[in-house]
Specification:
about 290 residues, alpha+beta, wza like fold, Outer membrane lipoprotein wza fold like, five-stranded mixed β-sheet, elongated, disordered N terminus, disordered C terminus
Length: about 290
């Protein structure tokens, strides 16, 4: 089995563990392979496509990988020519500054910063901006296993004090998705509706978000379906709540308010529509 030696030099503002260091396009690497004279020790630049060109084994993908992964692959490829090669990868010049963006953004992934630090409000547009279901906070993890900072989205959106919130190379930024409640069934706009941080909502408020019930809805037989360790269903008489005879019901995140349709109402509406058409036809005929 190949013996791997890993030497990591990360010229960054903060110290990070070897696993956290990513090689990026433009970085300068020094790759040493003991007992392999065909691969002399010399600096090699990662090209714009993210590859390095090495003797004996050709092009190897480097960008987006840790130096540990890279040294492992080089040793494996050299193993076809040299018994138990010892490979050392050293990052001697850092030109790449990766930062990861996850969660409720349009284009999650790893992005390269063009300077040693970047405002958080500049980074989010690089990831395509926020999804509609983005929550009300941003979580920034410094490096690998570093401090974690939670920032209220409102502080970023109001444009004030944005110089307080910076990201640095190897940081990880996560935008959690908002908690949702769902309104389904015979309503005008069924779907999921995000909740603000610490927001509570009632059944009637959720029905209003769905733009109300259809004329054919059986509001007396509505149900709240609650998921979790012990899923359960609860019948809700929305008609009685609307009339003020029954207290409104509080919903929890991920609850489903289901409003069924009434077969008798659908039939009555169809009969009324048919009668209206006949009446209009009779008026036209008399003319």
């Amino acid at each position: 089995m190949a013996v791997l030696t890993l030497i990591l030099f990360a010229h960054l503002a903060q110290s990070v563990s070897p696993e956290a260091v990513l090689v990026g396009a433009g970085d300068l690497l020094t790759i040493r392979a003991l007992h392999v004279p065909e691969m002399p020790e010399r600096p090699v630049r990662v090209d714009d496509a993210g590859f390095v060109q090495l003797a004996m084994i050709g092009r190897v993908k480097a960008a987006g990988r840790t130096t540990q992964d890279l040294s492992h692959e080089i040793a494996q490829k050299l193993d076809a020519f040299v018994r138990e090669p010892q490979v050392t990868v050293e990052v001697t010049e850092v030109r790449s500054r990766p930062v990861s963006v996850f969660g409720s953004v349009r284009k999650p992934g790893v992005y390269q910063m063009d300077r040693p630090k970047l405002r958080l409000v500049e980074l989010l547009p690089m990831a395509g901006g926020l999804e509609p279901d983005a929550g009300s906070r941003v979580i920034v993890a410094r490096g690998q296993g570093g401090a974690v900072e939670t920032i209220a989205m409102s502080k970023l959106m109001n444009g004030q004090n944005t110089d307080q919130y910076w990201v640095y190379p190897n940081d990880s930024v996560t935008v959690p998705r908002a908690k949702l409640i769902y309104v389904l069934g015979d309503v005008r706009r069924p779907g999921g509706f995000p909740l603000k941080e610490d927001e509570t909502i009632t059944a009637l408020q959720a029905l209003a978000l769905a733009e109300g019930a259809q004329l054919t809805a059986a509001t007396k037989s509505s149900r709240i379906i609650r998921k979790g360790d012990e899923p359960n269903e609860q019948t809700v008489n929305l008609r009685s709540v609307l009339e003020g005879k029954t207290k409104d019901f509080a919903l929890q995140p991920n609850d489903i308010l289901f409003v069924p349709s009434s077969a008798s109402k659908r039939t009555s509406i169809k009969i009324a529509e048919a009668a209206m058409q006949m009446a209009v036809g009779a008026v036209i005929w008399r003319r």
